[in-house]
Amino acid sequence: MTDSPATRVDVTPAAADMLRRLAAVHGPLLFHQSGGCCDGSAPMCFPVGMFRTGGSDVLLGRLAVEGIDPVPVYMSASQFEYWKFTHLTIDLVDGRGSGFSVEAPEGKRFLLRSRMLSDAELAAFGLV
């Protein structure tokens, strides 16, 4: 879990535990913050190589989860324009999403929690 004022993304302990379990089965993972479609705007988790990112995606950061490879988190550039002033935390809740995220068979789903960036974070990202 990261707690630096200059991070855009973080993960809760519950989500980190699920990521460790999923990585043991699927190998290295990545998130892409969905902009709609299947599961609204849920963070979708995929094994690396199963979802292609491209020039229209922004790398928000890499989640440092003890025991597994860092987990990159992406979002489309157009969606990032709306979210660039927020800090995002990936959490885990009971329930099953309707998308293709790898946690779905576990009866859980990843959920995005957001808050506005602090003044220090805004300055660190050059947004003031």
TrEMBL record:
Identify the InterPro entries for this entry. Answer: DUF779
Question: At the top level of its lineage, which domain of life is listed?
Answer: Bacteria
What name does UniProt use for this protein? Answer: DUF779 domain-containing protein
